[in-house]
Amino acid sequence: MLITLTTAISISQTQNVQAAANDNSLAAIKKKGTIVMGTSPDYPPYEFLVNNKPVGMDIAIGKQIAKDLGVKLVVKQMDFDALLVGLETHKIDMVLSAMSPTPERKQSVDFSEPYYFSGQSIIINKADKEIYKNYKSFYNKKVGAQTGSLQYDLVKKQIKGAKLTGLTKVTDLIIALKTHKIDGLVAESAVATAYVKNNPDLVVINGGFDLTDTGDGTAIAFAKNSTSLVTAVNKTITKIKQQKLTTKYLADAGKSLKVNVADTSMWSYRSYFIKGIGYTLLISLVGVVLGVLLGTLLALCRLGSIAPLKWLATGYVEFIRGTPLMIQVMFLYFGLNIPALTAGMVGVAMNSGAYVAEYIRGGIDSVAKGQTEAARSLGLSSKDTLRYVIMPQALKIIWPSLGNEFISLIKESSIVSVIGVTDIIYQLRLVQAATYKGIAPYAVAMVIYFVLVFGLTRLLNFAERKMQHA
Question: Is 16 contained in some domain?
Fold first, then answer.
């Protein structure tokens, strides 16, 4: 037993020494001249957006780190629960997003020294302030927390019988709280205070949680075995603490928050939605064009006589139709290391192509066999028969189904927001975080989608009428 334990320790130490010897994390950052910071900008005062630009204490710390390393800071916006995946797949170099260095997280990533210490609070409706005093008041109650966060784990472990609601965005949890779908929302004290200041119907109470085994403060996450980079960043953190810069950063964040809430009308945030419309239309257009081309090719392969191509096309269609679009997009982005916008467009096109293939195959099968026989009897080749006789008739048959696919594509493209593509859904969440309004941005997004879909529907109906009279 002792010999086995000694051997295991020796192997572990050897592996750690080898990892340290092979560590070039700092050198790699300096060589490329940039350090990519991943963050979820819906968490004021740590990180949020003003005029579509990320600001807050974590952004300021990121800039100081980049300055001290002599490189340029690049901020990549992602959902909070995708940040560690982005780190492990080297999409980002560090996570600065109010993350706590919990023991579970330390198993997969490295952490810097803590740069800020904040307690854990609970946000409640002001009308309930006499009911709830601390976390024990929420036994068997409905409690919300951000998915993948320390607060989520605190609710699970310390609030007995809690009916936990986990969402990726704090803004959505605030809406859930104000509409009484949850009784309380657990958040870091600084964040809770920021939200309550801009929501007069809410108040914050001290959570009173036991934080002994939850990680010490807030720290920066790095890929495993990034010792040299962590050491360099710790020097910056030491300087920040000595000069008490976090106080300045929080004060600056407070000023930025006032800018956001000075005018919270949706019209003043129209640039956010316009940007989202542009990306949504781009992704939908590329998805339609590539989807039709891919779908046509797959349909012809399935109807052809070349067995390997037929099997390959059938397997592709069945696999794509049997897996969620969200998983496909995330696999392209994280698994194959494709840029976010490209991954979104390719994912949507690949998914659409599988469905379009079935529409086209069904349309071709619906054309009477006599049409093919008549064309061949007139001397047309198989290729010309398909091109000039079968496909035009099939197109008329499948046009309504294709139209529905095009309409669905506009709405389903919202999936790309999970990997940080700034489509309409992503932009509405940014507006929610900036204005502290929950319902109004949803209403605007609904109107935008309706206008886009209604316009496309009229265009498709016009094209259908033209084809019927052709």
Answer: no
Cβ-contact 103, 148 below 8 angstroms: no
Per-residue pLDDT for 10 more than 70? Answer: no
What are the φ and ψ backbone dihedral angles of 263, each rounded to 5 degrees?
-140, 105
Examine the domain organization and report whether 221 and 82 are in the same domain.
yes
Please report, rounded to a whole number, the percentage of residues in the chain having pLDDT higher than 70.
Answer: 93
| Two structure tokens written together for 411 | 């709405």
- DSSP helix/strand/coil, 201: coil
User: How is 291-346 classified by DSSP, letter by letter?
Assistant: HHHHHHHHHHHHHSS-HHHHHHHHHHHHHHHTS-HHHHHHIIIIIS---HHHHHHH
Report helix, strand or coil for 79. coil
Q: Which of the pair, 72 or 371, is modelled with greater confidence?
A: 72
pLDDT band at 156 (very low <50, low <70, confident <90, very high): very high
Domain holding 79, by residue range, is 21-117+217-262
229 lies in a domain? yes
* Distance, CA of 374 to CA of 370 (rounded, Å): 6
- Is residue 201 domain-shared with residue 326, that is, in the same domain? no
Q: What are the CB-based long-range contacts (under 8 Å, 24+) for 261-268?
A: 261/198, 261/435, 261/436, 264/435, 264/436, 264/437, 266/431, 266/440, 266/441, 266/444
Task: Identify the CATH number of the domain in which residue 31 sits.
Answer: 3.40.190.10
In a domain, residue 190? The reply is yes
Q: Are residues 445 and 357 in the same domain?
A: yes
Q: Measure the CA–CA gap between 169 and 156, rounded to whole angstroms.
A: 18
Find how far residue 419's CA is from the centre of its chain.
4
Q: What are phi and psi of 133, to 5 degrees?
A: -115, -35
- Are 110 and 246 found together in one domain? yes
How many folded domains does the chain comprise? 3
What is the spatial distance between Cα 174 and Cα 145, in angstroms, rounded to a whole number? 10
300 strand-pairing partners = none
Give the Cα separation of 371 and 389 in Å (integer). Answer: 7
pLDDT, position 190: 85
Same domain, 309 and 239: no
